[in-house]
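stage 2 :: seqdesign
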């Protein structure tokens, strides 16, 4: 642990290219965009419920899981 503290003490602090709060804002925007993408796919399985019910009826009902 002494080596690590010695190295950290000798490291020169450099200036960041943008203010530190900007990194948080960028992360917030990215996560919000990704959250919107995930949210846009909500309820996709139920959009064609008539087609899914017809498939389930033709292929052994909802209890059949393809042999799993």
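stage 2 :: out
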């Amino acid at each position: 642990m002494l080596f690590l503290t010695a190295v950290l003490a000798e490291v020169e602090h450099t200036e960041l290219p943008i203010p530190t709060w900007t990194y948080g804002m960028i992360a917030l925007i990215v996560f919000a965009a990704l959250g919107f993408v995930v949210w846009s796919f909500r309820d996709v399985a139920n959009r064609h419920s008539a087609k899914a019910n017809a498939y389930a009826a033709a292929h052994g009902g909802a209890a059949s899981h393809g042999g799993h």
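stage 3 :: structure notes
- The mean pLDDT is 82.
- Residues 1-56 form one domain.
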